[in-house]
Amino acid sequence: MSSLLDLWVTKDIVGGRFIYEDPDFDFKSPYFSSASILINVDLAKLESAFSPKSNWLLPWHQRKYYCPECLTDDVRSGRYPSWRKSWCYALNSHCHFHRKQLFTYPGQLSADKAWDAFADYANSKNFYLHKDSNWSYSTPAALRYLLQLKALRLAGAGPSSYGKSAKNARAFVFFKFVAQIFLQARTVNTPAGAARHLFSSGRLYVNRSLSGYPDALEAGSLESNSHERMCGVILAGFIFSFYTRRDLEVARRIYAFTGYYFPDDKYRLGFMSFDFLYKDDYLYVKSLFFKFPATLLKKVKRFVDGIDAANSGRFI
Hints:
It is a single chain. This protein is mainly alpha-helical. The protein folds into two domains: 121 residues, no CATH class; 179 residues, no CATH class. 46% of the residues lie in helices and 6% in strands. Helix 5 crosses helix 9, helix 6 crosses helix 9 and helix 11 packs across helix 14. The longest helix is centred in the middle third of the chain and has 15 residues.
């Protein structure tokens, strides 16, 4: 008897890149059409129930981050393990039910990836939680979770706030952009974003001969691991002044505990975050900032001033 697990996820090559079918959210894909027929549920009902709450999704081949406790709960309850939609968003780094950072499934992704991830976790006990730095596994894990959750909620991207207010949509796009530049991928001419070189190894490398600066921004945000995404969100929350004085004191204690340096001044962080080799890259980032209204730019002025101070004099 056929099942959903017999359906294949297809891929193609477009412009030198693999383009994958999206069996999670593309309701026009062959996978969804076949699934609708197989389980005898109208496609419109599936779309209504499972449409994404944000358009900033990880690409299919990067949806490898999961909560082992959720999958274990499924099996213990007699259910086949299922991949949660909330794990598929580019800003999400945690399971909001168990309040734990997402693990990484290292194998080949398939329609049965939930079972594959559970089996890998249960059999090998090889925990693919990123341990690039002390931030990944040190004692203040709950405090880190609360810091990133507060930033997401105030940005309109928390687990209960996706799509709640169209009024804040512009602010969310701006927050997303700032988080993205903190996650910038390292290229042969561009250093890693601050979320990488301050709290991680910055190993993700994009070949400059194949990808320009805009691609470094895109690849950095979509190919970051859960640990790096958490750091990027926390840094963006700091730039947007989402944290109280007490929150920042908690953050400083975390930094002291882990031995990592974090500049608690927005100007200094902007100065450290960008070291452009090319004027066009600098002007490109500046143009992205000035696409947003003055009311939003005012919130990040000191950060932008720091970027200018580090670069403008070299390109006059």
